[in-house]
Amino acid sequence: MERRAPPPPWRTPWAFAGYGAGVVLLLVIGLRGCGGGGDRQAGPSGPIAPAPAPLDTSHTPRQTGRQVEMAMSTGDYERLTLEGDRAKGRIVKAQLYCDEVDQAALENSDSIEAPIAAIADSVAHRVSAASCKWGAQDDPRREDFLLLVPHDLAPQFSSQPVTLDGYVRRRRLIANVEWIGKSRALALQTVGIFRGLSR
């Protein structure tokens, strides 16, 4: 039996892998021009989206005697959400099931809506808020809602009975709520301000 001689070093698998890497390196250098293009500017090469419209933080004064709009169901919540800025500032009557009041951090002081700024702690950048469910207990489409509670109305909020909502204990409120909608200062949560109990 005759033994074969090993291949020369330039014909080993490692040599072929090196040849391939060298060719790729030469192609990259040739196509990129060794990175010497000083006239090119770094930055995005695609279209740039326009900046979002500035947020109107001027406070719309609350009108006493404004008509309270019924918004007890999840459908009403969805309607207000879809109306966007047109619904902002409306006083609506809502059925809410809320957790206890806690402090919510405000994310960006430049984008705090004026009604929220009026009740927020400007030093700590926090506001009193309760996580709520909007709508009746038996509605499977209930939505999450953040109810901001001014300090002077906290006793009214805490006077409401605690009920078992599924497996969670929550306060049941029939409340007048100033609709704010999605708030940039509160991580785009849907929010409103508690304006007292409804009769």
Quickly describe the structure.
The chain has 199 residues and is of the alpha+beta class. Helix content is 21%, strand content 29%.
Describe the structure.
By secondary structure, the chain is of the alpha+beta class. The chain has a domain at 69-197. The protein contains 4 helices and 8 strands. The longest helix has 20 residues, at 13-32. It is elongated. The model has no long low-confidence stretch (mean pLDDT 82).
> Helical percent range?
10-25%
Number of β-strand runs = 8
- Listing every helix as H and every strand as E from the N terminus to the C terminus, the arrangement reads HEHEEHEEHEEE
What is the straight-line distance between the termini? 106 Å
Summed over residues and divided by their number, the pLDDT gives a mean of 82
The share of residues in extended strands comes to 25-35%
Q: Any low-confidence stretches, pLDDT <50, length ≥5? A: none
Q: Compute the CA-based radius of gyration.
A: 31 Å
Q: In one word, what is the shape?
A: elongated
- Class based on secondary structure composition and strand pairing: alpha+beta
| Structure annotation, total helices | 4
Largest sheet: 5 strands, mixed, barrel
Strand order of the largest sheet: 2-4-5-8-7
Oligomer: single chain
